[in-house]
Design brief:
The chain has two domains: 125 residues, Rossmann fold, CATH 3.40.50.2300; 93 residues, Winged helix-like DNA-binding domain superfamily/Winged helix DNA-binding domain (Arc Repressor Mutant, subunit A), CATH 1.10.10. Helix content is 40%, strand content 23%. It has eight helices and 14 strands. Helix 1 packs across helix 5 and helix 6 crosses helix 8. The radius of gyration is 23 Å and the shape is elongated.
């Protein structure tokens, strides 16, 4: 589920935006001033904010700065100001998009969805799973705050597995994606060895893995407690 916070003091516009963005998989939270917006932001799990710049009790730009001190969630500014300096300032403060009034609600919806898609891609490069953090962009991998040293091959295998969480991947699929075009020249035991090494670095008990499970006769799956097959 995705939660979108709409911060707009014009009640009819706020409701119009909410109706336009509401769909399966999206929860809408509404605020009409900065005070209620701040309360919602710090008490809910928010995935994107549609933020008016001019609000009754302050500036959305100041609120953006406060958010950026704690989060990188996407922010789309709404404003009647179409001066270039205002738009530039919005982006410099950390805004992801800037829409000037009046605007089409359907165009706003399209731009919100586009920002969410970009945000999803970015999140996939950095994942927090249990007590582990995997930042593939920075090649920084940690377990319980301690850095894990992974080889390039182990990084590729980990990325494929976590990007397909809950999905069984055959040995052939993994070989093709980890070793790309050279899979046919790689020893068939290379995958088993790489899985074993990766488990040794991320599992509490590599002999009874919680994350990287073997599906007998098929391949592997990244999960927690779904399967109990033993390594073969």
């Amino acid at each position: 589920m995705i939660t979108i916070l709409i911060v707009e003091d014009d009640i009819s516009l706020n409701k119009g935006i909410a109706l336009t963005l509401a769909q399966d998989g999206i929860i809408i939270e509404q605020a009409y001033d900065l005070t209620s917006a701040e309360t919602l932001f710090f008490s809910r799990s928010i995935d994107l904010i549609v933020l008016d710049v001019n609000l009754p009790d302050g500036s959305g730009l100041d609120f953006c700065q406060k958010i950026r001190a704690a989060s990188r969630i996407p922010i789309i500014f709404l404003t009647a100001n179409d001066m270039e300096s205002d738009i530039v300032l919005g982006f410099e403060l950390g805004g992801d998009d800037y829409i000037t009034k009046p605007f089409s609600l359907m165009v706003l919806r399209s731009r919100v969805m586009a920002v969410l898609r970009r945000s999803d891609l970015g999140r996939e490069d950095k994942l927090i799973l249990g007590d582990m953090t995997f930042d593939f962009g920075k090649m920084d991998f940690r377990r319980q705050g301690q850095q894990i040293a992974l080889s390039k091959t182990e990084q590729k295998l980990l990325k494929v597995l976590v990007s397909n969480r809950g999905q069984i991947l055959t040995r052939d699929q993994l070989m093709d994606q980890v070793w790309i075009h050279g899979a046919e020249f790689v020893d068939e035991n290379a995958l088993t060895v790489t899985v074993k090494r990766l488990r040794a670095k991320i599992e509490d008990d590599p002999s009874a893995p919680k994350y990287i499970k073997t599906v007998y006769g098929l391949g592997y799956v990244w999960t927690e407690g779904m399967l109990d097959e033993k390594e073969h």
